[in-house]
Design brief:
By secondary structure, this protein is of the alpha/beta class. It is 40% helix and 11% strand.
Amino acid sequence: MSRPLEGLRVLDFTHVLAGPYATRILGDMGADVVKVNSRERAIAGNGPESPYYIMWNRNKRALALNMRSDSGKALCRRLCDNADVVIENFAVGVLDRWGIGYTTVSETNPGAIYVQMSGMGHGGPWSSFVTYAPTIHAISGLTLLTSVPGREDIGIGYSYNDHQAGLHAAFAILAALEARRRTGRGQQIDLSQFETGVNFHGPALLDWFANGRAARPVGNRLPWDSAAPHGVYPCIPKGEGITGERWIAIACLTDEHWRALREVMGRPAWAMDPALNAVEGRMKTIERIDTEVAAWTRQHDALTLMHRCQAAGVPAGLVQDGTDLTDHDPQIRAARFIQPIDEPGSPLGQTFADRLPLHFEKTPCDEYHRARLLGEDNAAVLKDWLGLSADDVRAGEADGTLG
């Protein structure tokens, strides 16, 4: 049975994470994603020998194309004329300098959809900024609001905004495809990763405009709602040092949750204080509550305690690490979320796929192919998209057009 996006042709110039994540989603759903790379650019995290590259570039075909050569640019222009989607996350203006910008290509391919995922967007005083996750997080305010009081420099610690930009790009492409279905024309989409980050500050922005209050980092506390206890608490360690620590998240969002937690804790005297029955009273002594809950959780195994809390109706979750998720989590195992890719050829040997977390009833997305080597699909892509012969491809590889 066909996957939802089979037949869709995507020319992918993206690198690092945000763009490759967007096109990985499209590839997982069946689109023919052609990853354009070159010997010059296929280094570090943009090369097939990198675990980072392998992670974000499955389910794509690999085309090696030398965009420094006139013949490479001419061949790429022909590919753009046959593409449904062209996507890139270069600095502003790269595709235009190559002669394959949207204005040029739309004259011969009016249905083309272009997605340009620059850090700051096209236009504005910061449009030329070079950005990566730490800088985008900082500029957009994510670093501040995901820290703890007194330490505004901590932040998220992973490329959250890259993932969100990738999701926005995939969604934008689907929306543009629907618009093209109705109008017959493609369009250019300017996606600012900076604006994507700011977009996630809705409540903080509202609080500023409505009340003049500037949001500050609150750690595990809720900034606008009252809930107690609401935090992450230590449990019996599983080993030595930081890597051996065990933690559990407990979130009592209602008084009913609190009453259930008291029962799980064995109705300790401190918790039976009538002043704590309502959340208003608990918020007045939240520091003491956190201290008492932490003293209790330290006596228990985190996994066992999670199950006890959940059985009693208390929202609680073990703070899992990679080993927990890949080797022990029964929910992940039941969903077959982590799958081995049974396909030889990866420089790293056996690779795995974290499946698309969407379960389509009629058009299942359960095909996962390894990231391809540089230029591995030159012949197949150029035959399918442009009708070139094997001799044409060999000649292009010999003269440096494909490389």
